[in-house]
Specification:
Blueprint lengths: L1 H18 L13 H7 L5 E13 L2 E5 L4 E5 L16 E9 L7 E11 L1
Parallel strand pairs: 3-5
Antiparallel strand pairs: 1-2, 1-4, 2-3, 4-5
Length: about 120
């Protein structure tokens, strides 16, 4: 029983320590779709702020921030619970740029946050 309790305590503290970090980061404060499309590198971490304007099917969506549009892939379990998101909602996406030599490049979203409904 002590082992299970200790494992739970350690899991909680390890999660909290990652969520509270406020120091320097390799993730830019913000990027634009235009910058990514112009000079983005494969597997580059990105942070985008804008709107999801269209569902394309199979976890694929069209995203815009006013500088361009890009396809994003959002796993169904990443959507914020109890927060509906429309084409008018402002969101923040953190993810990885998947640059393709042939075909469409996209952002694989790792987290989504609603900034404004």
């Amino acid at each position: 029983m002590k082992t299970i309790a200790m494992a739970c305590v350690l899991a909680v503290f390890s999660t909290l320590s990652h969520a509270q970090y406020t120091g320097p980061s390799t993730v830019p404060v913000a990027m634009t779709v235009g910058q990514i499309q112009e000079s983005g590198k494969d597997d580059q971490r990105v942070l985008l702020r804008g709107r999801i304007v269209k569902y394309l099917g199979d976890e694929k969506y069209q995203f815009t921030d006013g500088t361009g549009e890009i396809q994003v892939e959002i796993d169904h379990d990443l959507w914020p619970s109890g927060q509906p998101i429309s084409e008018k909602s402002e969101v923040e996406l953190v993810g990885k740029y998947d640059k393709e030599l042939i075909g469409k490049s996209e952002v694989e979203v790792k987290s989504i946050k609603v900034l404004q409904q």
